[in-house]
Amino acid sequence: MPAQARIIDGKAAAAELRAGIGREVAAIKAAKGLVPGLHVVLVGDDPASRVYVASKEKLAAEIGMNSVAHRLPAETTEAELLAKIAALNADDAVDGILVQLPLPKHIDTGRIIDAIDPAKDVDGLHPINAGLLAGGKNGLVPCTPLGCMLLLKQTLPSLSGLDAVVVGRSELVGRPVAQLLLQADCTVTIAHSRTRNLAEVVRRADIVVAAVGRPLMIKGDWLKPGATVIDVGINRMPDGKLAGDVDFAEAATVAGAITPVPGGVGPMTIACLLRNTLTAFHARRGK
Ligand SMILES: Nc1nc(=O)c2c([nH]1)NC[C@@H]1CN(c3ccc(C(=O)N[C@@H](CCC(=O)O)C(=O)O)cc3)C=[N+]21
Q1: How many CA atoms lie less than 13 Å away from 264 in the CB half-sphere?
Q2: CB 43 less than 6 A from any atom of ligand 1
Q3: What is the CATH number of domain 142-266?
Q4: Which of 40, 81, 89, 197 has its CA 20 to 30 A from that of 161?
Q5: Residue nearest to atom 30 of ligand 1 (CA)
């Protein structure tokens, strides 16, 4: 069967978003002589993390931000990482701090996230930012959920009243994207590994956000015809290729619109990280 769904071009949307941020960065530099600074902390040498951090560094530099990667050895202790974060918190030139996840097992991730100044938490993961989001008074909002919403808003004329099903309940994606969908007046269901009749639940959705980390889990016949599908999954397959959480080949024959992997949510995540860095800059020292 031929693909019918509109392919949502996250790569193009992200490039456009970055170009706009680049123009803002240039204007800030011209007017104030200040350069927003994004600092990414990477502990250890996970190959996937290395690639992501290099990509964040490159794209931040491309739009004229001050982009610094702090690469720490895998043996870095929790106390040493906390000291690094305290130094970045205290440095006025640092607008955004992102600690690349996952961290080595000997480090308590929650303790590290809690130590980041919420005003510099461009990942939006600090409990203060998560709490603000849950209350509908957004501080810094997690990048991937923000990217999902921008793609949805450019795809659909209105989100109000639509049935949205989020598959996955992670702190990084599932929970925050559900909050944003609720703010956009969707009727939101958060499904997860214990959900009964998952296919039936997903079939009710006008909007499906798949964020489970299980390759090709969501099949074409799980979808309501015409549904908008946002695939957050980025799974490395045995053949080396990337696949989403949605079976794209099947889903594209049923959905109204769908994000590809790669080229969908991933590039938007990084663009939204740059957006958040600018937001943090404005809130802290853009006044
Ligand atoms: N503190 C923290 N914040 C994160 O936001 C975070 C993190 N840790 N750890 C890892 C995950 C993963 N992540 C991705 C971002 C962009 C792409 C991306 O741009 N992907 C390209 C393909 C890249 C490729 O070819 O490998 C795409 O989907 O088109 C992927 C994955 C951010 N993460």
Answers
A1: 30
A2: no
A3: 3.40.50.720
A4: 197
A5: 266
